[in-house]
From TrEMBL:
This is Uncharacterized protein. GO terms for cellular component: Golgi apparatus. InterPro entries: Glycosyltransferase_77 (IPR053250). It comes from Chlamydomonas euryale. One of its GO terms (molecular function) is arabinosyltransferase activity.
Length: 314
């Protein structure tokens, strides 16, 4: 669903693409992350509620799952913006397949498999439109490179790169406080807390001790601790980063009411905002259908929408 970049990424994820040697190194290094998806969230996305044509009433579990992961990926993207490191994508779990026409039981008609499943990255992200191309930096901030989810398992990745890791964990896991929200490097480890802002992270992650490591490895705890750090970008960097986030997602497709039968994913689903189509999200993240201001039709429940506050606290 993302043209050549989408096809290439799928082949890379399965270790089937013949990249040149320089693909397996990077001048600034890489960012790896561990997203700890709650088991209860995965268990809810078992496909049992998806019987029949896809309607908006049954989207909540899938969107809660995908957005949970995108909000953690957002933290890694913010750190990439201040370090220049390429982001190694995490596996993205989904409950719903993607198609150019109406889905049946959450699947392309005639197919079926166990849910949830790790979906292709182009199901969720617009690789062709806004990841593969270099966007104008004055509007979107610095370009962010990425690698596929299986990058660290590729036998062509040298041990000198793969073993050069700087583990970033929480201050509490290190048994102490972090003045300013972030510590220096010690024994190939750093610690962060929710007190860290983007300026402090920029300084800490760009010291010679930090940049000497090829891979900056963010623990699940570190992702949680730094969940809101991106909001501390100074202007115009904050607006540029938010603009990039607004253009990075793709959509799910297709609902019974088609066309348009798609709903866009959202890297800002946990805060009030306007999306790339200037549609407003207030206290609830709501299901707009297509690219206009049309709300998806609900058949079995009133007041549809995911609570923004609940998503932020998740």
């Amino acid at each position: 669903y993302s043209g050549t970049p989408g096809k290439r990424e799928r082949m890379r994820a399965e270790l089937l693409f013949d990249d040149p040697p320089e693909y397996f190194d990077h001048e600034k290094g890489f960012i790896a992350m561990h997203i700890d998806v709650p088991q209860q969230m995965l268990d809810k996305c078992n496909g049992e509620g998806l019987k029949g044509p896809l309607i908006a009433d049954v989207l909540d579990n899938h969107f809660e799952l995908v957005h949970y992961q995108l909000l953690r990926l957002r933290t890694a993207l913010a750190i990439s913006s201040v370090t220049g490191r390429a982001v190694i994508m995490p596996p993205i779990w989904c409950e719903i397949d993607k198609y150019w026409a109406q889905l049946q039981d959450g699947n392309i008609p005639g197919t079926s498999w166990k849910k949830p499943f790790i979906c292709p990255l182009d199901h969720v992200l617009d690789l062709e439109g806004h990841w593969a191309r270099v966007l104008p930096p004055d509007a979107f901030g610095p370009h962010i490179e990425w690698r596929e989810r299986s990058f660290l398992q590729n036998p062509r990745l040298s041990a000198s790169v793969n073993q050069s890791r700087l583990l970033v964990d929480t201050c509490s896991s290190h048994g102490g406080d972090c003045p300013g929200g972030v510590t220096g490097v010690q024994d190939h480890k750093m610690a962060v807390s929710s007190a860290a802002d983007m300026h402090a992270l920029h300084v800490a992650f760009n010291t010679p001790e930090a940049t000497s490591h090829k891979i900056l490895e963010l623990s699940a705890g570190a992702l949680e601790a730094l969940h809101g750090a991106w909001k501390t970008f100074a202007q115009p960097q904050l607006d540029q980063f938010m603009n990039r986030l607004k253009h990075y997602p793709s959509n799910t497709c297709c609902l019974q009411e088609h066309p348009p039968g798609w709903v866009w994913y959202d890297f800002l689903a946990d805060i009030p905002h306007k999306d790339r189509f200037n549609r407003e999200f207030k206290d609830k993240w709501i299901y707009y259908r297509g690219d206009q201001g049309d709300l998806a039709t609900w058949y079995n429940r009133p007041n549809p929408g995911l609570e923004v506050a609940a998503a932020a606290a998740a």
